[in-house]
Amino acid sequence: MRGWPEGYGRRVLDEVDSTMDEAARRGPELAGPEWIMARRQTKGRGRRGRHWRDPKGNFAATLVMRPGEGAEVVALRSFVAALALYDAVAAARGRTEGLALKWPNDVLLNGGKLAGILLESAGTAAGLSHFAIGIGVNLAEVPERVEEGAVPPASLAGTGVTQDEFLDLLAGAYADWEARFVTYGFAPVREAWLARAARLGEVITARTTREEIVGTFETVDEQGNLVLSTPGGRRAIAAAEVFF
Length: 244
Ligand SMILES: O=C(O)CCCC[C@@H]1SC[C@@H]2NC(=O)N[C@@H]21
Hints:
CATH class of the largest domain: Alpha Beta
InterPro entries: aa-tRNA-synth_II/BPL/LPL, Biotin_CoA_COase_ligase, BPL_C, BPL_LPL_catalytic
GO molecular function: biotin--[biotin carboxyl-carrier protein] ligase activity
Strand order of the largest sheet: 1-2-3-7-6-5-4
Bound molecules: biotin
Shape: globular
Helix content: 25-40%
CATH architecture of the largest domain: 2-Layer Sandwich
Organism: Rhodalgimonas zhirmunskyi
Number of strands: 12
Number of domains: 2
CATH topology of the largest domain: BirA Bifunctional Protein, domain 2
GO cellular component, one term: cytoplasm
Strand content: 25-35%
CATH superfamily of the largest domain: Bira Bifunctional Protein, Domain 2
Largest sheet: 7 strands, mixed
Order of helices and strands: EHEEHHEEEEHHEEEEE
EC number: 6.3.4.15
Number of helices: 5
Structural class: alpha+beta
């Protein structure tokens, strides 16, 4: 296994409210990107303000950084993180079989949700004071309850990978994808993401805050939008919840 990536800090906490809150507290004084992992969260949160349940032994960490780019470029790191998470999970299992990415950034195992990513930032669109990528993985067990209509949960129980080992795998994989993103831009990240996409070419449903759009999952465009071809034409969707 490769060592801890150069230039990234590492903080491991026994317990915290949420690693996203800890990232916000750390943000103003950061010298460089830092991984914050908690063995337990008391107030973990998911996308759309949902509670994120953290059964004992599951993985919860946030990568916090102070990027130089504007908010739109920074947001593409959601795909960078999803690819890193995919690679870390593949390394933990020793195989990629059954793994897929669900737009925008969930990792699925045999069709079940294994891991989720939450992005948060502070500052203005022109200059972010900090940017946080929160990652939760059902390392040891699945949460008891999931949202209605959501894909069922999956876990890595049985692989025996510890939280610390998973952090090492993830930090290494993230550093590799981040280097590609910084050097070559979004194109190779987009291509790799599409190669691992769940339900590409199939009919899916995207639920935004205003409407429900049903269409064929055509691609993800250069801005990271979900592109659906619908009877009414091609739709590029920036933010939505996807249902299969
Ligand atoms: O809704 C989702 O799918 C995203 C879940 C993100 C959960 C992780 S756990 C580590 C970090 N801390 C949090 O409070 N949330 C994220």
